[in-house]
Write a structure and sequence with these properties.
The protein is mainly alpha-helical and about 230 residues long. The chain is built from seven helices and four strands. α1 packs antiparallel against α4, α3 runs parallel beside α5 and α4 runs antiparallel to α5. It is globular and about 75 Å long.
Length: about 230
Amino acid sequence: MVRITRVYTGTGDEGQTSLVDGSRRSKADPRLEAVGTCDELNALLGMCLMEISRLPQHEDGGNRSTVQRLQSIANQALPRIQSELFDLGAELACPPSKIPEGMVVLNENQASVLVDEMDAWLEQLEPLTSFILPSGEGPEAVIHLTRTVTRRLERTVLRLAESEGKDAVRPLVLVYINRLSDWFFVFGRWVCLGLGNDESLWMPLGHRGPETGVGALIRKLNQNDEEFKQI
């Protein structure tokens, strides 16, 4: 087990830190960028859990069983993924050839579980007829943000591989991250469905008609404010 008695060490004051194998790298190094992005993603999962926990379980008329179901699933799935992201961050903090003996890394099972969960949700979801705008009335917006940071993690890992060579990252790492981004997309849709909210669909520019903006509305509101002041 990890035992931390002091967070500050002072060894990183000059912009360097240690990898798992003990070697020193700049904190701007591509490998540390991947580790940091993985950490950022993990923190966003905490925000997802927070937003989902805030959903009211009761409303006029009784219990909201769909909210309780959503919270039950989220409270099991999201902490599991947070732990997997800690595993992933530890792995990214050193080249594959220098992973310490006894350190357990992600395998195909974790990626397969993500696919199985997506398939279960897709059984309830209607096929998409358009792209979805990243928005929502509840936790969906944070889930969309989490999905985009997962894609950024994927890009940082790819840049790491391009910087240090194809052996810098195990292929399964990219498979897992790619599946995880898809997982958040499907999870967000399932949350939206469970809450009874409508998805915001993208309409192509050619179908939207002329853009008039809200300038006229703003001026009208300003005029109303001035007229109110004169009463």
